[in-house]
Amino acid sequence: MYRWKLSSQEPCSITCSIGVSRSFVSCVRYDGVEVHDMYCDAVTRPEPVHDFCIGRECQPRWEASSWSECSRTCGEGFQFRQVRCWKMLSPGLDSSVYSDLCMEAELERPPERRTCKSPTCGPQWEVAEWSECPAKCGRKGQVTRDVRCTEESRSCDPSSRPSTVKNCTGPPCERQWTVSEWGPCSGGCGEGITVRHVYCKAPEGRVVPENQCPAESKPLSIHPCGERECAPHWLTQDWERCNTTCGRGVKRRLIQCVGITAGKIQVHEDEACERRDKPEEDSTCFERPCFKWYSTPWSECTKTCGVGELVRGCDPLTKPVSKQTCTLQACPTEPPDESCQDRPSTNCLLALKVNLCSHWYYSKACCHSCRCNTTCGH
Questions:
Q1: Number of domains making up the chain
Q2: Does the keyword Signal feature in the UniProt annotation (predicted)?
Q3: What's the 3-state SS for 63-129?
């Protein structure tokens, strides 16, 4: 007369990537009408069915760190923060990705610098950002920052000078590498690879930056696959993150000589693979522009007696030539795009100052300023 029935599945538990969809159990009469659960035998009640479901692809997003302290203790200074593009790649794997993804999605990039004002005052100490903590997990280290006086000709109060060094602690050591299942094989021996996600997790299950897990124990994310017997060949892993937070740096990847014997991977000495075919292990990379102070030696005193001034800067008479002509192929006859506008979130004045117009990102983000720098006023 009465029986249990699994109802249709509810919507996917998440709107992007892979989620879980659950079926409901209800008690129905012989004619299919749903009745109270008391009419069905509780002992034979089936368990709800949980199935994986695929939502739409997750969209990238900008994530910004907290603002730094003001670069000056009085007057007008600046605050900085890091802005990176993030995207959920798979369940539990929320990772930073190339900024191009957020730009292609036409997402407005949060500002990385803003002014901060304090009451006007005399000579004050000016501080830069703290460096990153170099300590490994569970260990102590020190971070440093530059400190200078805003008015070089007058002395700041030494007793109020901010510290240039402070102690720091590396991330907790209990954070560990977590891996997903291996994906399907992409081809035959020597060409086929299988890929899995490798990410660093905190004890509570939160995904954290990879530098908080020990690099020497990171599991492979790319694995050879194919025939049961496979001659030694080069296998490349994904690129690691750039080793600098600003300016130009170096990124590295693991290259191994591997083969397959009796269906199992074998790691060989490099000599077993063709040396001239080995892929590059290092590559240059570029992060946001660096901000750094430069100074020259002090000049002679402006007076021979009494109170004068010392100045430091560059002698305009000895300034090297900063421009010269160069002849290239003829310019195209098509006129430049007069309607291009600088992206408001990009500091184009700074990009011009440090000659970044040749970089593909700044040539696009600062198209008006870069174009005008070469054509306006000529």
A1: 4
A2: yes
A3: EECCCCCCCECCCEEEEECCEEEEEEEECCEEEEECHHHHHHCCCCCCCCEEEEECCCCCCCEEECC
Residue 143's DSSP bridge partners are 166
pTM: 0.33
CB 270, CB 284: distance < 8 Å: no
Answer for the pair 166, 143: CB distance below 8 angstroms, yes or no: yes
Q: Which pLDDT tens digit goes with each residue over 142-162?
A: 999 988 887 765 678 888 889
Residue 269 is assigned to a structural domain of this protein: yes
Q: What are phi and psi of 298, to 5 degrees?
A: -70, 145
CA distance 107 to 101: 9
- Backbone phi and psi for residue 368, each to the nearest 5 degrees, phi listed first: -70, -50
pLDDT number for residue 52: 54
User: Same domain for 101 and 20?
Assistant: no
Domain residue limits at 366: 347-378
Domain assignment present for residue 72? The answer is yes
**Three-state DSSP class for 153?**
coil
Pick the closest to residue 191 from 132, 258, 243, 266 (CA basis). Answer: 258
